[in-house]
Write a structure and sequence with these properties.
Elements lengths: L13 E5 L1 H16 L15 E6 H6 L6 H6 L2 E3 L1
Length: 80
């Protein structure tokens, strides 16, 4: 179980963490504000607002694990 997206796609069992694409988009707005003259110290620190659950069923099968259907239903993405 990993906290950064992309590891399940690389063969990890599951990821549960922030949506990195959304975080990069938010970072672009910060860069824009800084380039327009805002002081970085004056910008608020933000927490991720969306967490993603990705489950790799191939890895689960290789480990002989049964992922409960209730967990699969909650997953944002399932890698088969």
């Amino acid at each position: 179980m990993l906290g950064i997206s992309g590891f399940a796609e690389a063969g990890g069992l599951a990821d549960y963490g922030p949506d990195l694409t959304a975080m990069f988009r938010r970072a672009a707005t910060y860069i824009d504000k800084i380039l327009k003259g805002a002081k970085p110290a004056d910008l608020p620190v933000e927490q991720p607002t969306r967490l993603e659950l990705v489950i790799n069923t191939r890895t689960a099968k290789a480990l002989n694990l049964q992922i409960p259907p209730s967990i699969l239903l909650r997953a944002d993405r399932i890698i088969n």
